[in-house]
Design a protein that fits this description.
The chain has 238 residues and is of the alpha/beta class. It contains 7 helices and 7 strands; from the N terminus they run βαβαβαβαβαβααβ.
């Protein structure tokens, strides 16, 4: 794969961090976006120590103007943006009867509007280039429903719809869109008592599994678009 200039949100941990490491290992300059500088800077330093090119940009994806500033800075440095991986997300498992509406707003604002904000920031540059690749991280929770985590599930259904609508709108400019829907993955979202119990019975995905799937989509020739990838642990059933 030729080096691609990449912006990755949610890059301080989980799938975002694994994707940053994977892409940087192929020579891609990676720009890491996340709310907390400490884990973000640690990932960037690890990549640079291995000979890669990485820069940390502390930013909350709910801040549309900050994301636009980061995109402009990346273009100023490299002349283009080839890839956005929109991986930032938060979780909530509360029932609608007794959950926290403030937390629900954070989930929707981060998981849905945060993805939209990131795409909004990079699309003008990709339109001018008439090329680019948007990778949106959803979840199998965007394809199925079950009792529990209703607002999180709704947010991931929204990401699935956003990805398909976006794909139809940008393809005429040579921009590809891939939606990745992972099953249970060993990320901070699963670091709960419920998640720890699940990990006793299911060999969950490693974030590097998701990174490898993303690289597969990016590796395809320009005329070939991997629109959706659903990646589950082999023994995960509903």
């Amino acid at each position: 794969m030729d080096p691609l200039v990449c912006i990755i949100t949610g890059a301080g941990s989980g799938i975002g961090a694994a994707t940053a490491r994977d892409l940087a290992s192929t020579g891609c300059p990676v720009h890491l976006v996340g709310r907390r500088m400490e884990p973000l800077g640690a990932v960037a330093q690890e990549i640079r120590a291995g000979g890669g090119i990485a820069e940390a940009h502390p930013c909350d994806v709910r801040d549309a103007e900050a994301l636009q500033s980061i995109a402009s800075a990346v273009v100023e440095r490299h002349g283009r943006i080839d890839v956005l991986v929109a991986s930032a997300g938060v979780h909530d498992a509360a029932d609608l009867r007794d959950g926290d509406p403030g937390r629900w707003r954070e989930v929707i604002d981060t998981n849905v509007l945060g993805v939209a904000n990131a795409c909004h920031a990079v699309l003008p540059h990709m339109d001018r280039q008439r090329s680019g690749h948007l990778v949106l991280i959803a979840s199998v929770a965007g394809r199925k429903t079950w009792e529990g985590e209703p607002v999180y599930t709704a947010s991931k259904h929204a990401v699935v719809a956003l990805a398909d609508s976006l794909r139809q709108a940008v393809t005429r400019n040579g921009i590809r869109v891939t939606m990745l829907a992972p099953g249970m993955s060993d990320t901070p979202i699963l670091d709960t008592p419920f998640g720890n119990e699940l990990k006793k019975t299911v060999r969950v995905l490693d974030p590097s599994d998701c990174a490898r799937a993303i690289r597969f989509a990016l590796d395809q020739p320009p005329h070939c678009s991997v629109s959706e990838i659903v990646l589950r642990p082999t023994d995960q059933v509903f």
